[in-house]
Design brief:
Blueprint: H1 2-13, H2 21-25, H3 30-66, H4 69-91, H5 98-111, H6 118-131, H7 140-162, H8 172-176, H9 180-193, H10 196-214, H11 222-236, H12 245-251, H13 254-257, H14 295-312, H15 315-322, H16 367-382, E1 387-394, E2 398-405, H17 411-415, H18 418-425, E3 431-433, E4 442-447, H19 456-461, H20 463-466, E5 473-479, E6 484-488, E7 495-498, H21 505-519, E8 525-530, H22 554-578, H23 583-591, E9 610-616, H24 618-624, H25 626-639, E10 645-651, H26 661-666, E11 669-673, H27 678-685, E12 698-702, E13 710-714, H28 719-732, H29 748-755, H30 759-772, H31 777-784, H32 788-800, H33 822-830
Parallel strand pairs: 7-10, 7-11, 8-9, 9-10
Antiparallel strand pairs: 1-2, 2-4, 3-4, 5-6, 5-13, 11-12, 12-13
Helix pairs in contact: 4-5, 4-6, 5-9, 7-9, 7-10, 9-10, 16-18, 21-28, 22-24, 22-25, 24-25, 30-32, 30-33, 31-32
Bound molecules: adenosine-5'-triphosphate (ATP).
Adenosine-5'-triphosphate binds at residues 499, 501-507, 652, 696-697, 714, 716.
Binding site for ATP: 499-506
Biased composition (Basic and acidic residues): 296-315
Transmembrane segments: 31-54, 75-93, 105-123, 144-162, 182-215
Length: 832
């Protein structure tokens, strides 16, 4: 407004001034007038041409923007390649032709002595663009451009100074043989105002800056980057195989794949080394360069010192120093979960990594993502919410879009819009996360219409998995940011896997077992597989990692769990006797020859393998013997961590009668696949979320101690791959089964005959009577919902086992067992 007023004002005040120049010039003559008209015509023509060209360019630009990003990158790569060929033809081969001559003039004039090297730069950049579509991050283009400009200015300026800073006035040849026009611009003017030497110093700095920008390296991380670079070079020169990538694995000879004694920190040669502050079962994505700089360096130094110490000093001396109590004597006859002599450490060859197939290459951005960004922005605009979609990270199954709020905008305004967002993005499975951990932004997770396949092979070959050689490490999948998620089962230490049918549980169990087969020998990890569904795990029959044939009968499974409790007790006895707190320490001492059986004992210590019990359908077991299974699970989960015994319990019925409060309280890690209801999600995770998963391996992983679950796409492993790995393992060694695992123990048979089918009821009745100290038949009738005759029979059975006294008419019987003795009495009744 003020601008218009003033211009109007000035026009009124100076009517004959600059506002009407043509009127003044007209009388100067017809030639001037003709020129002026021609000038105006040219101006109009220019406007028309410019408008048309601009319109075409904008249309092409819009078209190009609508192209698939991969195609756009391919196009850019091809254009670079064509430019490289053109420059090579002009500069190297001095080819004839007006375009080539012009190119030669421009390139040699601009880049001088550097021109012949220029075409060589185009080829690798073009190939990189085409080979890795979609891996660039937004902003990469600008960064690379700035970096390359800085490198060129620095380099050409230095070349120019080396040639004595020739000026353009000295002729084209002088420029062509030095740093060219660019070299002159970078060094000439500066050399005049400061000395050429000082200019050279500044140009070196510019060159270094360019290199840092191109390699995206902050100055403080230069030493770290150099270390990584030299590390990689050394490894390539015959250093230890990194195991990353299929190529690396292919190059590896069979000799190299033989299991060597583990040497990493997890091999734990130092007592207590496996316990760390803020420990979590989930391994970091890239443990090598970044995080270790602060913590690992410190830990490593300590670890190394400690390791050296362990070499020189006997374990006993070390323990005494810490003031640990004197060890209790070792049980002389205790039996160990022995390892067959066929499996000798060093002879067992692990399956080659290429046995597992690669997945599909991950995409960083597709057109579908761009469409959703504009749909989300549209919703924010329609509801007049001051919020922007600031970016997104594409995972294999879902993409997380980040929404940042303006000042004083309530988070609830966005979260309340979940249904509108669902509608706008045409997807029912929208999950809103507020905030995204580590960011002040709201995350909206929306399933991808074009999903990637995450393969177990890729996860196990990733640096996250190869950086740690712990035998219990398993590949889980990829998170929403596309990072590999691997976890240590020994640290979980027990996990509940649940989800509706078809959500991907069995695939997950297959992935866990296959991970272990790929990474560990039978003398490191043994498994008990319980498969009441009878079909899911049959392909693993006969692998040497099993200690008993696959258990399909729920009743036998309950017995096997009892055996595991016994095995745990045996291990604890040995731990107590040797004075160690964890099986890893015990094993390390046995391997180092520091532990000898007590004099007079027939025992010979052997390292204990980790024992993993996988139950694929807990519900079937809970239907047959709820009490026994619950008791065993609770005992194992409460104590088995230090004994190296771990449970994986899977169920498709996450209801409270299957996943009881006691089981839930003792199984700290949870892996939830898509559930059919919110209440199922609450049973597994204690929070909502699993009902919004899209199925087929989409999961929420809540590791022990974590507050918020990690969303991940579980890794896929096909049956063909599993069979290949199983075949390989079977060829390496035969299983050596323990006869007693799923067999009824002790003189049970005789007692069974007397008790008949009432064992479970009798156990419940005994527990009731002993805990309440009230031997009443009518109470049994009420609490156990049995008839008078059955309750009377149970009383008689209890009397015959000295749990209650004889009948005294209508009075309650005396209870002869104290609550403290209950576990022993129950074991006796079971015949254990
Ligand atoms: N990680 C995955 N990646 C890709 N697809 C998967 C994945 N996991 C499962 N699927 C798909 O989902 C289907 C069902 O998976 P799976 O058999 O593991 O489900 P489930 O939960 O074990 O079902 P059920 O309880 O009936 O055995 C598979 O056949 C496969 O097509």
């Amino acid at each position: 407004m003020p601008a218009r007023a003033s211009s109007g004002g000035s026009a009124r005040k100076k009517p004959g001034g600059r506002s009407s120049p043509t009127k003044k010039r007209m009388p100067e003559g017809p030639i001037v007038f003709a020129f002026s008209m021609f000038g105006q015509f040219l101006a109009v023509l220019w406007k028309v041409i410019a408008h048309t060209v601009g319109g075409v360019a904008r249309a092409v630009g819009r078209g190009a923007r609508d192209l698939d990003p991969d195609l756009r990158r391919d196009g850019a790569g091809l254009m670079l390649l064509a430019s490289g060929v053109l420059i090579a033809a002009a500069v190297w081969w001095q080819s004839e032709g007006p375009l080539l001559e012009y190119t030669r003039l421009v390139i040699m004039g601009g880049f001088g002595a550097f021109s012949p090297i220029l075409p060589l730069l185009f080829l690798p950049i073009a190939v990189k663009l085409m080979r890795t579509p979609g891996t660039a991050k937004p902003g990469d283009g600008g960064r690379l451009a700035i970096g390359f400009v800085a490198i060129m200015l620095g380099l050409l300026g230095l070349i120019h100074i080396a040639h004595g800073v020739p000026r353009p006035a000295e002729g084209a040849e002088a420029l062509q043989t030095s740093g060219g026009l660019i070299g002159f611009i970078a060094s000439g003017p500066l050399s005049m105002v400061i000395t050429p030497t000082l200019t050279a110093v500044l140009l070196v700095l510019v060159l270094v800056f360019g290199i840092l920008v191109v390699t995206s390296t902050p100055i403080r991380r230069i030493p770290e980057r150099l270390q990584t670079l030299f590390g990689a070079l050394l490894e390539r020169d015959g250093g230890p195989d990194s195991g990353i990538g299929i190529l690396g694995a292919d190059e590896e000879g069979p000799e190299q794949r033989k299991r060597k004694p583990r040497s990493g920190p997890t091999a734990s040669t130092v007592a207590g080394d496996h316990e760390r502050p803020y420990d979590t079962p989930v391994l970091p994505q890239s443990p090598e360069p970044v995080a270790p700089a602060l913590t690992d360096g410190h830990e490593k130094a300590e670890g190394e010192n400690a390791k050296d110490e362990s070499k020189d000093k006997p374990a006993k001396g070390r323990r005494k120093k810490t003031g640990a109590p004197d060890p209790t004597p070792a049980p002389a006859t205790a039996e160990q979960l022995s390892i067959p002599s066929r499996v000798v450490e060093g002879d067992y060859e692990l399956p080659a990594p290429p046995m597992l197939e690669p997945g599909s290459p991950s995409k960083e951005r597709t057109k579908a993502n761009d469409d959703i960004v504009s749909a989300l922005s549209g919703v924010m605009g329609q509801f007049k919410i001051d919020a922007d979609v600031t970016g997104f990270t594409r995972g294999p199954t879902v993409t997380r879009y980040e929404i940042e709020l303006g000042p004083a905008v309530k988070v609830e305004k966005v979260t309340a819009l979940s249904k509108n967002i669902s509608l706008a993005v045409k997807s029912a499975d929208v999950r809103i996360q507020s905030p995204i951990p580590g960011k002040s932004a709201i995350g909206v997770e929306i399933p991808n219409t074009d999903k990637d396949i995450v393969s177990l092979g890729d996860i196990l070959r990733s640096s996250a998995a190869t950086a740690d050689d712990h035998p219990m490490l398993v590949g889980l999948g990829k998170d929403v940011e596309g990072a590999n998620v691997v976890a240590n089962l020994a640290k979980m230490p027990h996990v509940l896997v649940a989800g509706a049918t078809g959500a991907g549980k069995s695939t997950c169990i297959n992935g866990l077992i296959t991970s272990l087969m790929m990474r560990s020998t039978p003398d490191e990890v043994r498994m008990i597989l319980v498969d009441p569904k009878r079909v899911e795990l049959t392909m693993y029959e006969g692998i040497p990692h099993l200690i008993t044939p696959i258990i399909t009968s729920p009743k036998k499974a309950a017995e096997a769990l009892q055996w595991v409790v016994g095995e745990m007790d045996r291990r604890y006895d040995d731990l107590a006797a040797s004075g160690y707190r964890h099986m890893d320490d015990f094993n390390a001492a046995v391997r180092a020859g520091e532990l000898k059986a007590p004099p007079g004992s027939e025992r010979e210590y052997e390292p204990y393998p980790y024992l993993l019990v996988i139950v694929d359908e807990l519900a079937d077991l809970m239907m047959v013997a709820p009490r026994d299974v619950e008791d065993a699970v609770v005992r194992i989960t409460q104590l088995a961590r230090a004994a190296g015994i771990h449970l994986v319990l899977a169920t498709q019925r996450p209801s409270v009668d299957v996943v009881t409060g006691l089981i839930k309280a003792n199984v700290p890690s949870r892996l939830a696949f898509a559930t059919s209801s919110l209440s199922d999600s609450r049973v597994i995770l204690d929070q909502a979320g699993a009902e919004k998963l899209v199925g087929k391996g989409d999961a929420l992983f809540l590791p022990m101690g974590a507050g918020k679950p990690i969303r991940l796409q579980n890794a896929w492993v096909g049956e063909k791959e599993i069979r290949r790995v199983v075949e390989h393992c079977k060829k390496q060694s035969e299983p050596s089964y323990r006869e007693d695992v799923a067999a009824p123990q002790g003189p049970k048979k005789e007692i069974d005959e007397e008790i008949g089918d009432d064992l479970d009821l009798l156990l419940q009745a005994t527990e009731l009577v002993v805990t309440t100290q009230f031997g009443s038949t009518s109470m049994l009738q009420r609490k156990l919902r049995v008839g008078f005759a059955k309750a009377g029979r149970l009383m008689d059975l209890m009397e015959s086992r000295d749990v209650v006294g004889p009948s005294e008419g209508s009075k309650a019987r005396d209870v002869l067992v104290q609550p403290d003795d209950l576990p022993q009495v129950l074991t006796d009744i079971r015949g254990g």
